[in-house]
Write a structure and sequence with these properties.
Elements: H1 6-13, E1 21-24, E2 27-34, E3 37-42, E4 54-58, E5 63-65, E6 68-70, E7 80-85, E8 89-94, E9 103-107, H2 111-120, E10 124-132, E11 139-142, H3 149-159, E12 164-166, E13 169-171, E14 185-187, H4 190-198, E15 202-208, E16 211-216, H5 217-225, E17 229-233, H6 236-244, E18 250-255, H7 259-269, H8 274-293, E19 299-302, H9 306-316, E20 340-345, E21 348-353, H10 356-359, E22 365-369, E23 374-375, E24 381-389, E25 399-401
Parallel strand pairs: 6-10, 10-24, 11-17, 11-18, 12-17, 13-14, 18-19
Antiparallel strand pairs: 1-2, 2-3, 3-4, 4-5, 7-8, 8-9, 9-10, 13-16, 15-16, 20-21, 21-22, 22-24, 23-24, 24-25
Helix pairs in contact: 7-8
The protein binds adenosine-5'-triphosphate and the ligand Nc1nc2c(ncn2[C@@H]2O[C@H](COP(=O)(O)O)[C@@H](O)[C@H]2O)c(=O)[nH]1.
GO cellular component, one term: cytosol
Organism: Morus notabilis
GO molecular function, one term: GMP kinase activity
Length: 403
Amino acid sequence: MGEAPVFFLDDLKKEFPNGVDLKSNGCETATIVVGNKTYLIGGNSTESALSIGVQIFDQSSGEWVYPTVLGTVPKSGKGFSAVLLNEDRILVLKKGSTPDDFAWVLEVDTQYVRQQKKILGTEVVAWSKGVRGNVKKPVVISGPSGVGKGTLISMLMKEFPSMFGFSVSHTTRALRGVEKDGVHYHFTEKSVMEKEIKDGKFLEFASVHGNLYGTSVEAVEVVADDGKRCILDIDVQGARSVRASSLEAIFIFVCPPSMEELEKRLRARGTETEEQVEKRLSNAKAEIEQGQSSGVFDHTLYNDDLEECYKSLKKILGLDESTDAATETVTKWVDLPADHSISKIDQKIIISCRTPELEKGSKDSIVLDASSLKGGAPGRTRGLEVYTMNPFLDGLNGINELS
Ligand SMILES: Nc1ncnc2c1ncn2[C@@H]1O[C@H](COP(=O)(O)OP(=O)(O)OP(=O)(O)O)[C@@H](O)[C@H]1O
Ligand SMILES: Nc1nc2c(ncn2[C@@H]2O[C@H](COP(=O)(O)O)[C@@H](O)[C@H]2O)c(=O)[nH]1
């Protein structure tokens, strides 16, 4: 709770309509009313003057609230516009920004935000970057230690380097000889990771074989930013948490042909001490049971013959012989003009340039179609579509999809 600049309060009492811009110390802000709360987006961020701040004026208590802000906070730019979508999220458009950075979503009452409010006991908002189109669902791969998850993932990434990206987990376990920090894992201190978990930076985390492991929201986001399909190698507890989150994914459980073969592989890998091997083997029994009965997994793979198992994995992921290994997911955006106005019709946001050329009819408006949004915090909001429309032409004849 806190005090906000008096003139904001006075301005807000005038009951501005949603999306209207106010100016504070040269800093542009947008206000959006959701129920009895007014979200003031922009102005001073409590974290940094370089990122977009959020404050909430609660009309029922007459108090200003500084919410816990989750997700990657967009950097402030040349100002922005905001529009309410579905009463639970606000679309924030950054003026004059680069094509891959102009659409952001501030979640104010989504399932994820409500869940986090309960956990953290504070007011919460969550940022999620808007991504055009639908990158395919992330893939969660689980299974007991030594079954061959890492081997299968390496094969996939080698064959389809531009299609898949690996979610680099955090762990408190010690680095193995060949591993690189930031590539195989982010190796971290327990106290640091616990603090980051508390701050809501993790999509999931679990204690596995005596160490803490977790997938940060950022680990998944950087893969989506690259236009790639994310692969997560996590244990069954983690898979269950992801299943309960808003991240829509495909869940695959990998089973060994027998416990004897699992032990053989784990020992042959030679990366664990005898004590650790014993621990991993005894945990494997419970994991296999849970993996086959929990209802978390969409598919089970038996990794007996590696090549056969890899073929089955590719089939599940829709990668047959004819799939072009070099296929890239290209997400093209548009340059958002700095000087624009926005209006909303159903789930379509019309962005019109405030330029003389437009008045003469020589420029197009941009249409953002938010009717098929998917995903959201933690992670990206996918499914935004972009069109251009010449306002001086009638009907759909004037709409061109950007490709
Ligand atoms: N089908 C297979 N047949 C024989 N050996 C295999 C097979 N699949 C993987 N292996 C070998 O088993 C060992 C363990 O595999 P890998 O490291 O990929 O397991 P993992 O499931 O990723 O384990 P962890 O969960 O501990 O990271 C490796 O030495 C690998 O080469
Ligand atoms: N819940 C999570 N489990 C994870 C994550 N990253 C890895 N793992 C699982 O841990 C074990 C052991 O891995 P190792 O590298 O020490 O052999 C393995 O089953 C992984 O799947 C994570 O981020 N979250």
